[in-house]
Amino acid sequence: MTRVLVVDDDPVQLRLTAEIANRAGFKPLTATGGRTGAGHSARGPQYRRHDP
Question: Is residue 52 assigned to a domain?
Fold first, then answer.
């Protein structure tokens, strides 16, 4: 299963986006901030999307 990193400081948006990714067949890794996201990113998700 392809992993996707979801980072958002809004817990509702984080849960929603992770659920959408899960239903689309991805395994979401979630983080509530940049440092945590960077830690997950080091583990190598195959897809990254940066929202400015």
Answer: no
Q: In this structure, are residues 27 and 2 in contact, taking their beta carbons and an 8 Å threshold?
A: yes
**Total structural domains within the chain:** 1
First to last CA, the chain: 27
* HEC profile of the chain: CCEEEEECCCHHHHHHHHHHHHHCCCEEEEECCHHHHHHHHCCCCCECCCCC
Residue stretches of the chain with pLDDT short of 50: none
pTM to 2 decimals?
0.69
